[in-house]
Design goal:
Length: 239
Amino acid sequence: MSTPPSPDHSPGARTRAALTREAIIAAGVELVDAAGPDALTMRAVAGQLGSGAMSLYRHVDDRDALLDLVLEAMTGEIPATPLTGDWRADAAGLARDVRSALIRRPQLTVLLTSRADRGIGGLATLDRSLAIFRSAGLSPLDAVEANHALGNLVAGAALWDALGIGGTSAEQRQARRVTAQAAVKALPPDAYPSVTWAGAALFSGSPDERFEAGLAMLLDGIAKRADSAAAVRQDEDPR
């Protein structure tokens, strides 16, 4: 008589249930959230669901297709502040919405940048961003470049928040700040004159305050580009 297989008691394994596409995607999201895109394999997802890896292929084509579905699911949870019709306010709202989503799940930054050329994940946010910059009167190229600039600011800020100070307590962050300040103060001014000149300003502000300052500077630049475009249109059609 054969011995029945032992149940899987490994961490994260679930009680065997009906296998669905939705359950597979949810398990994939959990894996990516916990350990990044590299952790998502068909075998790992099957282990999460208490299933055989081959069973997954009845619902998703392959690992790449599953990663696309995971990205779509994650980006679908990005909040969307209602548009006001003021392009600058709307661009700022979009930036804050995406940053908050990336801070909540740092692996989304990696997944977005590594799979930007695949699937529809992120397309809704891209379309929203381009519509905002289109409403500012930018040309298609300027709108795309403005979107890139805003995206780079948001992704960089979120990544810095996640890896620079993420996972540490307020006390630990303050201790690191004090250590860094002391290191800068000890630098020879003749070797690093500008760093010495900046001094305490290097450590001023919270992550939110630094993000808002950078966002304001970026939007100021985009506003000047929009004003220039409007002036050109006025010159071409002075009616």
